[in-house]
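Example 3.2
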Amino acid sequence: MKEDDDAPDYMDQEHINREIVPYSNKTWERIFHLRFQKKRSLATLVHNYRLLKSPENASVYIARKMKEMQSSSKKLSKSDLLALDRSTWKVILKMDENYETIHDYIISEVALREAKKMGKVFKASRKWVLNFKKKYNLKSRHIDAFVTNKKVESREDLKKTINAFREKIWPTLRKKYPEKKIWNADQTGLKLESVGLRTITVKGKKKIYRKIQRSSAVTHSVTLHIAISAAGKLFKKAYLVLHEKKLPRKFEKIRNNFEYLRITNTNSGMMNSVKSIDWMKNTFLPSIPKNSALLLDSWTGFDQMEKLPDIKKKALQIQILPAGTTAELQPLDVYFNRQLKSFNKRMNEKIKIYHSKYTISKRENLLSLINLMMSQFAAPMFQPMIQLAWFKAGYTKTHPPPFITPATFCFSIPEDNLNVYHKNEQSYGCSNGTDSELTKNHKMPRHLNRPSRGQL
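Structure, written as tokens:
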């Protein structure tokens, strides 16, 4: 007898696990029914289904095939993936609308939860998450502010208030006053030295350091109180509050040199009720025509100012914006102030590159630069930019014509494309020049001294 004849007649476990029994899924379902519903023995099943070979083999085959079919039924088809995408997007969109914080791993967890609801097995890979974000135009953004649940719950009421102002109060103002007589005033802060929090450097550095001129200049600021009209005009005089307890006597000699600024000071460098009265009485009212309107936010500093007799004499209607709506209803906040700060930052950066010894935060230098900035923004060519602020706030229906922002015009256009100003003047206006000579007027870098507005 050969040696193979002495081998056991059963098959080893590894071979049984690998062996494929060629029954259709329908046949296997019948076997499962007989085994688990009808309670047939393994011997009976082997007798009826010869490919199962033996009770021992049949036990392994049945368990393996049942697990395989259950796993197969949980795999996602193309239609399942589309349904999973849509259900995950609905959850993420609702979270975004409810001001919930969302990260990549949150998207993964939501997708896994939705797949489980569908009774499917799904792995939310990094690639899937990236494709999901691209499909639904999702981006990581800086959080501007945090709100409590109470504020979130009142958001719907706030939307109704905003819509009511746009649909009822604004049309009333517009019927009563022409656009050139409707103004919006607001205050915004400017750092003594404007710096960005991002820079370009070599990849892989652990810590990034950058130079500033003065440490106090990036923590202290001045306040600009500005007014713009719905017709696209910038109020000529910006009310500037310096961060100084007392101005020196010699300052009076140069105060009038700053054509576009009315300068004052407080200990904090911020506006207060006294300064708001001063602005209204001595800056704003003398320069506007009778029967005008002014939109203001609900700042308590304006309470005393509204009671001034001069306001009635001038027939100025003051319309206070509803509390909490400033970010959406105030044109200056919606668009204009952002352009102002962008210009100031670009101007500061350019000076530090080409004129490193020019101290920006020094009082006279700072005022010269802000005066220059306001002169640029007052140019007629930037009228559509101011009109866009009113459009974005929801007051006007017609989009202003295309325009170039002051920062782009002054700091991005090659010098060869700019107009040449009066040849007998030593100033060149905003350009990309690097002339290091300082003008006699306020000791400003020569290529940053203001051009004639008529040339813009």
